[in-house]
Amino acid sequence: MNPNFSDNDAASAAGNGGRPLKRATKRRGDRERGQSLAEFAIVDFGMGFHSYITVTNSVREGARVGAIGADAATIETRVRDTAGTLDQANLTVTVTNAQGAPGESVLVDTSYQYEFISPLAGIVQFVSGGTIGPTLTLSSTADMRLE
Q: pLDDT by residue (tens digit) across 115-134?
């Protein structure tokens, strides 16, 4: 018996005139590169979605603190504390009508510059003709009535 063939190869060779069947092979590197780009894109999407949810929740928390009479600095601190997992340098917080009259609204607006971690940013920028850059602006606004 030929040491280069297994029993399965010998069985398949019997139906092929005694010659072993050739297996279709494709270069592994191409498949793995495509797979890793897809994995990066999935991770990038997940991290971007997490950032969006965090921004939305942080704005809501800030507006709730503002609704019970907090000043603008306290509201901004609450937003930033709630968004602790995000890069604070990319987070902008704007507070309008803090400590206004009861019945009026406090408005908290936040934007966050999410930076892609994968090569997906370059692809998106190329496909969009440069209208979408290497960052996405995630923003959220909350409006609550002052108590």
A: 988 777 777 788 878 777 78
What is the secondary structure of 55-121 as a DSSP string?
A: HHHHHHHHHHHHHTT--HHHHHHHHHHHTTTS-GGGEEEEEESTT--TTSEEEEEEEEEEEP-STHH
Exposed / middle / buried, residue 77 (Cβ in 10 Å: 0-12, 13-18, 19+): middle
Q: Chain-centre distance of CA 99, in angstroms?
A: 35
Residues 39-62: tens digit of each pLDDT: 877 888 899 999 999 999 999 999
Residue type for position 141: T
